[in-house]
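Hey, sorry to bother you again with one of my protein questions. I've been staring at a protein lately and its backbone has me curious. I owe you a coffee for this, so here goes:
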Amino acid sequence: MIYVVQPGDSLFVIAQRFNVSIEALLADNPQITDPNLIFPGQIIGIPLPGPTPPSVPGITYIIQQGDTLFSIGLSFGVSVDDLMAANPQIEDPNAIFPGQVITIPTGPTPPPIPPPSFTYVVQPGDTLFVIAGLFGVSLNALIAANPEIADPNFIFPGQFIRIPTDDLLPPPPSGGSVYIAQPGDTLFFIAQRFGVSLNELIEANPQVSDPNLIFPGLIIIIPPV
């Protein structure tokens, strides 16, 4: 499974939370070069015991502070049993954590969306209209790029949506990683934090049309050091 690093997290804390060893975490995340240096918003893999659970069609959701499976189920109109069935990595329905990524089952897989697009994580207070304005795309184009959203007036913090664009967000380069922009971030600060040059960061993220204008929830590619 994947997990979004939260403020105050360390690999030791995450390893204890998910009952895995630090060695297993590092083996599953070769992009982490310094075990003592992880950042809020960073996406890491959590190794699961046994075979990988089968994928379930649905919406990806990041657990927020105060969430329970019951409240999430109410928000999305699904039962706790359905949530548990779609997320076999959750052994205890009462033990979920902010930053944990789960699947909200939605039935049959929607038809694939052709590129180009990049991913944005919905922030508190966002609407599709606001997001369309942030990225300079039409509301209709945004809705068309996200057919899994049944009600355009009903989106949630932590939900991943696709932003249509002329430039496809490239996959992380070998040894690179992915970072979710946080409130107050700039490309300059992110470059300093990860020890890369600003020019390298800009080149790795052609979807960022204005390097001085990034938004919380925007996924940034971090090139290898």
Notes: Strands lie at 2-4, 43-45, 58-62, 101-105, 117-121, 160-164, 177-180, 219-222. Residues 117-164 form a domain with the Membrane-bound Lytic Murein Transglycosylase D; Chain A fold (CATH 3.10.350.10). The helical segments are 11-18, 22-28, 69-76, 80-86, 128-135, 139-144, 187-194, 198-204. The two ends are 25 Å apart (CA to CA).
